[in-house]
Amino acid sequence: MIDLKAIFRAVSGGRRPSADTTESATRLVNTLPTMDSRPALVEIIKAVARINKDVSVTFKDRINTLLYVDTHSASIHHHLCLDYLAGVPRARTYLPTILAYWTELTNGYQLCLRQSQNSKTPQMTPTLELAAGRALHHQLSLIRWSALRYIHADGSTWLQAYRLYSLIEQAGFQQKPITLYQPDAESITPERMLIQAAMLHLAQTDNLVPIEIEAIHLMLSRLVDDVSLAPNASNSDFQYVINLDLPAAPQLLRRGTLGKGCRFWSGDAVVNRLADLILDFDQEVPANFKRALPSMPAETWRGLLQKLSTRWSQDGGKSMRRHERLTASSMAKVEVGFERIAHHLRLSRNVPLGDEQFSDEWRVTDSSEAGVGMTYLGRDVDGLLIGRTIWIGTRGQPAQLGIIRRVQRLSEGGTKVGVELLGNMPLPVQLSESINSTPFNGIYITQNNTRGGRRVFLVPNKLSSGSGVLSLSANGKSYQIRITELVASHEDCQQVEFDTLERLTS
After folding, report:
1. Contact 474, 429 (CB under 8 A)
2. Cα(first)–Cα(last) distance of the chain, in Å?
3. Could you identify which of 160, 382, 405, 458 might form a hypothetical disulfide with 443, taking C-beta atoms 3.0 to 4.6 angstroms apart as the criterion?
4. How confident is residue 118, by pLDDT bands cut at 50, 70 and 90?
5. Is the dihedral of CA 89, 90, 96, 98 positive or negative?
6. Are strands 469-474 and 427-432 parallel, antiparallel or unpaired?
7. Are 216 and 304 in contact (CB under 8 A)?
């Protein structure tokens, strides 16, 4: 094992020559192959932070060290990102490290750019172009990971990206392809990076699962390759705009949106490319997309592309809202997760909700014919996954069962949760494959209590239409059933149809 404390003794002490700061970071990177990846990356981030704080570091030492450290540790960082997105056990603890890596390197590259601008003969060398490109990439990655965590990036985060892009634009290489890392990797222009991030924001990601968000990000690298930013609006009524001078996210162009910092791009160009892609997917998933994008069923891809065609449309998808929302305000008792709900129903379904069971953690804020909007003020936000089942109890109303469809973490605190309702008064049932087998849970809503007029039967994901004959027990009665059809797959269960074969005698 490498003694990290020994390696960093030089950088953890008092004031020292700038060479010690940069050399310590370089030495650590050289030990990476023999070290556990996450602790090593944490120490690298600390070293970069020390470089950023050390004003005595020369421009040459700073930029060479940052590029070297970034180049040799990027693969480790990428691996942590993949583990986090895949839900690997304990990977949730990687998040601060993932974000700090991008933050500290972005700050360091910005210092290099400022040092260069303040020099007697400022010039944009290939090394500086790479530093600027990586800085923009890292800052936009912070914005994308806000979307992956259902947080809207604040204006200051966007403004920092805009300032980096403005520096690149002033130097005149915003449309120059840059290979950020491996020589054989695909290159990308700073302009395309910014448009890609803007279109991801305009995709309204707060009701998409992480794999769909990542798929859109990767897909956009191909969708926007012919799209460019213009300093002036065209005559088209359908354009998007960003203002490089304002701390605001990208948006559809509205009347009166003017300013020296405004950059415009065609909505028609993006939507037309998307329409072509939808036609391709109707035939077969294109081979280049299969290689470059996450593995998802063709039906999921088609559904995602249709969502984008609505959200990237000229009205931003507002015309597609099917039900009017009514403002509401009431406290709620909530259970999240299929197994947790089934357990609660078995124990407490017939127990009236008392005042002591309500808290300020959950509040219903609006409702419609199809669903409810809620605000959550608790800490267990990671459990609020899109597609997960949720049980809602309120005063004077039948208990409701639904599916989480939208999550948005608020900068001021709290989380907005949008729920699609399946029905009222869910019943707990038990299923078993044989007399001696361990029973498992199911949740049933009768036809009269559902929103769509079709009964709802939820079972664990491990069951399928090929599970054979099952015994179903509910309210003291038992039946023999066979699952016949998968209706919908959710994050923690699946909705199925079944045939009742016979009633069993007790």
Report:
1. yes
2. 64
3. 458
4. confident
5. negative
6. antiparallel
7. yes
